[in-house]
Amino acid sequence: MKKNHWSRLLIGFIAIFALFQWSGEAFGSDRGQAGVSIGLLIVAAALGAQRFFFSKSFGEAFFALGLGPPAKRGIFASLAVCLLLLSTIPVFASVANVSFGFYEGSIGLAPGLFFQAGIAEETLFRAYLFGHLRRRYSFWKAAGLAAIPFILVHSFLFYQLSWVLAAASILLAVAMSFPLARLFEMSGGTIWGAAFLHFVAQSTVKILVAEGESAHLFPFFWIAACAFLPQIVHGFPRGTRSTRARLPAFE
């Protein structure tokens, strides 16, 4: 990748992420309370950065950021993994003798969480960052390089959570980077398969409330489930064309 391309890519990434952080804190959207507005804001910012730095038109930027219609196999793979993850919750409840309820207003929070955790994060991390890297590198190299900033930006969790839970969350960020990148490819270079999985992984512990003596173990159980089970997507059929072949190379 040319040095000038790296500079433009990183400037755009830092600017969009800074806007993401600021808007989340400014609106107090820790559970997606303002997630729809934040999601639309971040998508608009990513479209602006893509158009300004790389694309010839907003239409080209729109498809380059993976906002077009997805390939069915990526959606099916994502939904299968999401259902598998959710099926572990009653198992944990039975083994740990824990009951679950819903966070107050959780139905109203779900759209915001999908826009904020699913659409916004996947537009930035998978479509904008990984998508550009994938045009030039193999899947594993591009996913590994894209995982570095994905991990770094999760370091702020040490200021919000206990160090044990924050460290576990960062390990989860490492583990999930690769299946999310794979789902981006399986969805035809679009964000939608990865967005559904990202939404389920992040929103479940914000919507469900565990009760019982072992309730404190649920976040760690969920982190472990989200770290390991999504890896099965690497064994799914991937299609015949790579993201590098489908997407235009930007200079």
Note down, in words, how this protein is organized:
There is one protein chain. The chain is mainly alpha-helical. It is built from 10 helices and 2 strands. The chain has helices spanning 3-26, 35-53, 58-64, 72-96, 106-134, 139-152, 163-186, 192-207, 218-228, 243-246, and strands spanning 99-102, 208-211. Strands 1-2 form a two-stranded antiparallel ribbon. Helix 4 (72-96) packs antiparallel against helix 9 and helix 7 (163-186) packs antiparallel against helix 8. It is globular, with a radius of gyration of 18 Å.
Write the layout of secondary structure elements.
Elements (H helix, E strand, L loop, with lengths): L2 H24 L8 H19 L4 H7 L7 H25 L2 E4 L3 H29 L4 H14 L10 H24 L5 H16 E4 L6 H11 L14 H4 L5
Antiparallel strand pairs: 1-2
Helix pairs in contact: 1-2, 1-5, 2-3, 2-5, 4-7, 4-8, 4-9, 5-6, 5-8, 6-7, 7-8, 7-9
